Amino acid sequence: MQAMRMVFLGPPGVGKGTYAKAVSREFGVPHISTGDIFREEIARGSELGRRVKEYVEKGLLVPDEVVIEVVKRRLAQPDCAKGFILDGFPRTLSQAEALDTFAPPNLALSFIAPDEVIIERISGRRICAWCGAIYHVKYMPPKYPGICDKCGGPLIQRRDDRPEVVKKRLEVYRERFTPILGYYRDKGILREVDASEQAPIVIPRVLKVIREYYGIE
Ligand code: AMP
Fold it and tell me: 51: which of 42, 68, 83, 145 is 20 to 30 A away, CA to CA?
């Protein structure tokens, strides 16, 4: 079977991270989220973290050369030999073109949901400060409020999930994404997934699209 080299595309809050985690578990390919990498580096106070902090907290794009280098290094790790799920990358046409020079994806999944659904999802999203697990106060609540089911860590709201930043991120998304979708459509590897329902409905749908695409029984 060919390596599953996938990119997950869609607006912030559409559920890419949640679907990517499920796909990663199901098929044993690593889930690589550039946003998670940056948040970890910021929390650790590393040099990379210091370079990207301001962009991430304001919902602005980190410069292409920085992101591309981070992704290139991560995809060179041995666990990516079987494939990968890129979540949050590419976000610009130059990132998509750069990716083709070192790890060309063979499936681009575009997740689609109306703006009202997205805003409701983002405003209720909470993540574990320790392990990055994702929750929603209404749709995917933890067993005990404010505490991660998996590791007991504190659940927090991402600084960039605050309403004033979300609006900016949706604007940035709209402006940048149309050409990227066109880029993958022209290559014939774009597939769309309706993500307007809740995760328990969308996840099986995503798994089915992937199984059919790669011819997995
Ligand atoms: P995310 O978790 O994917 O929403 O990413 C959070 C933030 O990290 C974004 O708002 C950007 O500031 C930064 N970021 C993540 N991925 C990229 C990327 N591919 N290009 C530029 N900035 C990125």
Answer: 83
